[in-house]
Amino acid sequence: MPCYAIDGVVPVVDPGAYLHPTAVLIGDVIVGPGCYVGPCAVLRGDFGRIVLKRGSNVQDTCVIHGTPAHDTVVEENGHIGHGAVLHCCIVRRDALVGMNAVVLDEAEIGARSIVAACAFVPAGTRVPPRSLVAGIPAKVRRELSDEEIAGKRAGTEVYQELTGRALASMREVEPLPALTPGRPRLPVTKVDALVAGRKGSGRDA
């Protein structure tokens, strides 16, 4: 995985974390135990510190960057969806930032909150705990239910399991030229499509 020092500052990655070989870490980046950093994610600690705390995940093509005045932090069990951008902000414990969302400078996403996919969270925004925020600009829509918070946590646990699977078995290979009889399926049983999770809930997300 490409890791680069700048001004003598070297990234720190706990041995229990998984970083995909195409992820890029630069400078003052600290990745804690049990974290997952996906393909083509970029964590640029060339201006300010970036911290991923225990059990958090940063999925494919995410970008995290910051400024010298404030650390950019994803707290324990934070969940950063595909393509999201975090810039000099804090994502509190058990919060989720949805796919392609943007969270700007000095914003704070409260514990156990969810930022909807494609939302734009302006600089300085304070999202209360247990909130659903959505829109451009993002606004608090409602409080999350216990069921929704549990669903988010279950999704994060799937990524924590993926960390272990990737550390144990992911490797670069040549593709097969053709489908082989009896091709195995992946041993994953707990992942549902979002629409499946919403059936019968009567809730919008």
TrEMBL record:
Species lineage: Bacteria, Pseudomonadati, Pseudomonadota, Betaproteobacteria, Burkholderiales
Q: What protein name is recorded for this chain?
A: Phenylacetic acid degradation protein PaaY
InterPro entries per the UniProt record, alphabetical: Hexapep, Transf_Hexapept/Carb_Anhydrase, Trimer_LpxA-like_sf
Q: Which domain of life is it from?
A: Bacteria
Matching entries from Pfam families are given as:
Hexapep (PF00132)
